[in-house]
Design brief:
The chain is of the alpha+beta class. Helix content is 20%, strand content 30%. It has eight helices and 26 strands. Strand 20 and strand 21 form a beta hairpin. Helix 1 (8-17) runs parallel beside helix 6 (298-317) and helix 3 (201-212) packs parallel to helix 6 (298-317). The longest helix has 20 residues, at 298-317. The chain is elongated and about 95 Å long. The structure holds adenosine monophosphate and magnesium ion. Magnesium ion (MG) binds at residues 182-183, 248-249, 255, 296. Magnesium ion (MG) is lined by residues 182-183, 248-249, 255, 296.
Amino acid sequence: MNKGLLSVDEALAQLLAGAVPVSAVEEVPAIEASGRILARAQRSTMDVPPMDNSAMDGYAVRSSDLERNGKLRVSQKIMAGSVGKPLEPETAARIFTGAPIPSGADAVVIQEETEAVDDSVVVKKKPKPGDWVRYVGSDIRKNSEILPAGKRLLPQDTGLAASVGIKTLPVFRKVRLGLFFTGDELVMPGEPLAPGRIYNSNRFTLRGLGEVFGCELRDYGIVPDSLEATREVLRRAAAECDLIVTSGGVSVGDADYVKPAVEAEGKLLMWRIAMKPGRPLAFGKVGGAAFIGLPGNPVSSFVTFLIFVRPFLLRTQGLTSVEPNSIAARADFDWPEPDTRREFLRVKWNAQGGLDLYPTQDSAVLTSTSWASGLVDNPAGQAIQKGDTVRFLPYSELYR
Ligand code: AMP
Ligand code: MG
């Protein structure tokens, strides 16, 4: 039944084999680097913490001093940001969180376990050496790798870089993603919707996805269903973009000009993929730009973007890991009549930690994608019974 159809994995392998990572690297301020892809591994030029310091407010002591006597004179006070004197024998130093441990001291007694009496402190619980001390280099050792190359930088990664004094970071330049939308029936919201017309919802969905992945977007808008218009915009986009993604016009209907246009301007592979939603997919090259043509159907273009364009884009951006994390989750629904193709079902987490199914999986129903919290990746021909474990791809994992 799936004769002539390419499997999702075969299509993905062919796509990824054709993905060329951008090689240009730019040095950007670390404070603006969140979301960018790190081009070179970063090492720490220092130990963190840079000195032994107190983990709590309390008293720095020499633990052996407390073996005979539970009461010590307080000989100094050390605040965070200042350095104390060496600890006099048989005394304690009042110390605050983050302040350097004075030389001679080997432990901190937290203030909750002490009682201040005049200029002395009574220690109620005997400390062990090392108690409440954060040791130099215990978080990060000088010269150790703190961030690997090929990682999309999270906000906390830029914080980590800053914590060792890194001011700028080398990142790959942004991928230039060109988008256009074919179909004479398309109009933009705000324009009158003449009979037979529909709104260009894919423009919103695909542009938003391009933004999620930190692309530099070039939006060429709606392109009329004509060979000349399609060729012209393809040439323009190929000159300006790394990757061109389009919606619609990749079927084999009379008004489907994407195929002949890409063939005329470059090279094209047309695939019919064994997946639901989203059978037709086009992959090619126009000039120096890669080309991926998605189906026009809004659910199909959304799902095929996540399954194919996402990993292709990530690989082009220079990410090393492009496979989405999945979760083995419990289906709280039945799916008794699976398709012979691999299906991506729109589902939502419920309060019981299981997955509910959107009641209609019709690929024209965009509501399902908005309602859902992710997709179940269901193998071809596999029925699902309530309680079964399924492979869940949450949007939170697909969107990174
Ligand atoms: P096509 O792939 O061009 O045959 O389009 C398949 C279906 O998707 C048709 O019903 C189109 O009207 C619809 N469609 C195509 N492009 C868009 C778009 N940009 N936004 C919403 N629906 C679209
Ligand atoms: Mg069309």
